[in-house]
């Protein structure tokens, strides 16, 4: 406390009088959204507050983990936001902790299935880390150390593993939410897992130029559409059950599920525009129509009140204040992907930037919480700070600010336009199986009863070993 009072800034403020001191404290973050320096300065404050939640670089802690209540997947998203922060502002402050964390959590096989996480890991969890690695490749972020696979190779490993998990035996395809039978949600094909796979395939196609990835992107889009997870008017549902042969849905519409398909469609639009010929299922016109449909349908996620028109909301839970920790972060991803869409499909710029500007203004104005008086809440359109703080809230506002800078930096690169990330198209397919692949094949070759028996046998062996030791 005393040291704080002796700070130069405080002395200056005191000399300006008590009234200006209170004014500064109450003002939170101020921003001129037409001024790049002002946007960057606001972003720097939001990023600083965001990183206060991270403990993984403390000695004794594990690089890449966020403390409770944040799940592992959200940490993956967190480092993506820090990569974007560097890409859009040029501030390198957090690059070191980001490279360290992502290398560590990529695990021994470089596929974001580190041994501490595999048992409960879902396809979407793995994907959120892969998406951050893809951002690193596309933004030409600092490459990992030479002993580690490149960012691109990590994404390719995740792609190959998920393509291998594509479940043609049920509902004509699609990914299940969970990787392993023992996790709740194994019987659910959730849209975000399939949307992430679609997006990863599209981005690999664009980055590498390898058409096999584009074929998978088409396949994943087709399946999502044909299964009814994307409706005729481009509403994007939460998911569907395997038991119903994918005919019964959870129709909840989240910002990020709509956002991931919009992003993937923009990547495919950009990729197909660069090809030398158009086939009927593979033309930029097809993808442009999809972008336009998804963009129109995304109006659902914006306030229509006059006082907060065009401000992004999370309709299922925001106004009631019932969003859980995961859900508090979803607007960050739609915001992140919109910034990319403006770069990948520049014809969307005018439509999107109007919403980004309204959202950024409202979002920043409510960043008045926490010890610093600059932490952000979640209810941007309400016009006042909602009293909450968290990683999701900080990431959300930061990603919106990046959108304001979409024309200040060049778009995502490819291997042909300056990308330097090292790839390996065979990553994740090797005969040198990872622990997870061994588990996976054990479960798919045995039936579920077989897996249960296996568990009983292993438990029995452990019991016997302990018994022998004790005797
Ligand atoms: C961890 O990283 C943050 C952000 O760079 C920094 O503020 C903090 O001092 C670091 N902590 C340690 C123990 O290195
Ligand atoms: C796994 O967890 C243990 C215990 O928290 C930790 O010491 C270790 O570093 C972690 N390993 C990885 C790869 O994160
Ligand atoms: C399940 O649905 C797919 C289409 O999604 C259909 O091709 C298949 O015949 C259905 N299977 C059963 C058993 O109804
Ligand atoms: C799209 O068209 C290009 C150029 O004709 C072709 O090389 C590529 O294989 C096609 N991709 C898909 C997914 O059909
Ligand atoms: C996707 O569906 C279109 C028709 O809607 C078809 O022409 C195309 O071959 C399908 N692509 C894949 C990879 O399934
Ligand atoms: C592919 O189709 C789009 C839309 O019709 C067009 O703008 C583009 O020039 C076409 N590309 C080629 C190589 O013909
Ligand atoms: C909202 O704005 C519209 C158009 O500016 C106006 O016609 C309408 O009366 C306004 N509604 C309220 C409740 O202020
Ligand atoms: C594809 O993306 C690049 C990079 O952002 C952009 O410069 C280009 O205009 C995009 N292509 C199309 C057809 O919009
Ligand atoms: C990518 O990063 C490398 C290494 O930092 C640098 O040499 C290169 O100029 C960068 N390329 C672009 C397009 O920024
Ligand atoms: C393209 O990607 C596929 C799928 O991972 C891979 O099997 C193939 O070897 C790749 N082709 C090239 C030329 O890298």
TrEMBL record:
Known Pfam families for this protein?
Answer: Glyco_hydro_76 (PF03663)
| One GO term describing the cellular component | endomembrane system
Residues annotated as signal peptide: 1-27
Q: Subcellular localization, per the record? A: Endomembrane system
Q: Which residues cross the membrane?
A: 449-470
Keywords assigned by UniProt, alphabetized: Glycoprotein, Glycosidase, Hydrolase, Membrane, Signal, Transmembrane, Transmembrane helix
The EC number of this protein is 3.2.1.101
Q: Which GO terms describe its molecular function?
A: mannan endo-1,6-alpha-mannosidase activity
GO BP term, pick one: carbohydrate catabolic process
- Name the source's superkingdom: Eukaryota
Catalytic activity, per the record?
Random hydrolysis of (1->6)-alpha-D-mannosidic linkages in unbranched (1->6)-mannans
The family database entries (PANTHER family) matched by this protein are listed as: MANNAN ENDO-1,6-ALPHA-MANNOSIDASE DCW1 (PTHR12145:SF36)
So what family is this one in? Belongs to the glycosyl hydrolase 76 family.
What is the official name of this protein in its record?
Mannan endo-1,6-alpha-mannosidase
């Amino acid at each position: 406390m005393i040291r704080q009072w002796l700070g130069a800034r405080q002395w200056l403020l005191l000399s300006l009088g008590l009234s200006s001191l209170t004014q500064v404290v109450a003002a939170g973050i101020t921003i001129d959204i037409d001024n790049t320096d002002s946007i960057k300065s606001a972003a720097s404050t939001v990023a600083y507050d965001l990183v206060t939640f991270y403990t993984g670089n403390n000695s004794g802690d594990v690089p890449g983990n966020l403390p409770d209540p944040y799940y592992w997947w959200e940490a993956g998203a967190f480092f993506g936001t820090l990569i974007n922060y560097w890409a859009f502002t040029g501030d390198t402050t957090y690059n070191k902790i980001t490279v360290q964390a992502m290398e560590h959590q990529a695990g021994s096989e470089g596929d974001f299935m580190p041994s501490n996480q595999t048992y409960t890991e879902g396809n979407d969890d793995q994907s959120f880390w892969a998406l951050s690695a893809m951002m690193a490749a596309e933004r030409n972020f600092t490459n990992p150390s030479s002993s580690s696979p490149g960012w691109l190779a990590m994404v390719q490993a995740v792609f190959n593993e998920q393509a291998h998990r594509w479940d043609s035996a049920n509902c004509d395809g699609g990914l299940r939410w969970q990787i392993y039978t023992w996790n709740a949600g194994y019987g659910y094909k959730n849209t975000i897992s399939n949307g992430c796979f679609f997006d990863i395939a599209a981005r690999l196609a664009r980055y590498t130029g390898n058409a096999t990835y584009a074929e998978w992107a088409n396949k994943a889009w087709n399946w999502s559409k044909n299964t009814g997870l994307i409706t005729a008017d481009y509403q994007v549902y939460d998911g569907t059950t395997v038991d119903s042969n994918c005919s019964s849905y959870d129709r909840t519409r989240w910002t990020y599920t709509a956002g991931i398909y919009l992003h993937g469609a923009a990547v495919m639009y950009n990729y197909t525009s660069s090809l030398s010929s158009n086939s009927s299922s593979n033309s930029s016109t097809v993808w442009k129509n999809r972008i336009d449909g998804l963009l129109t349908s995304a109006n659902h996620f914006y306030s229509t009140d006059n006082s907060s028109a065009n401000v992004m909301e999370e309709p299922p839970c925001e106004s009631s204040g019932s969003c859980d920790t995961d859900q508090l972060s979803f607007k960050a991803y739609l915001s992140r992907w919109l910034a990319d869409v403006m770069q990948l499909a520049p014809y969307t710029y005018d439509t999107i930037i109007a919403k980004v500007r309204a959202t950024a203004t409202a979002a920043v104005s409510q960043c008045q919480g926490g010890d610093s008086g600059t932490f952000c809440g979640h209810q941007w359109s309400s016009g006042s700070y909602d009293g909450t703080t968290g990683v999701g809230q900080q990431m959300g506002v930061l990603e919106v600010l990046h959108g304001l800078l979409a024309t200040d930096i060049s778009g995502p690169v490819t291997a042909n336009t300056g990308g330097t990330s090292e790839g390996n198209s065979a990553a994740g397919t090797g005969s040198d199986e990872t622990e997870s692949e061994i588990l996976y094949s054990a479960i798919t070759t045995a039936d579920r009863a077989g897996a249960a028996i296996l568990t009983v046998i292993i438990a029995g062996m452990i019991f016997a070993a302990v018994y022998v030791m004790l005797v």
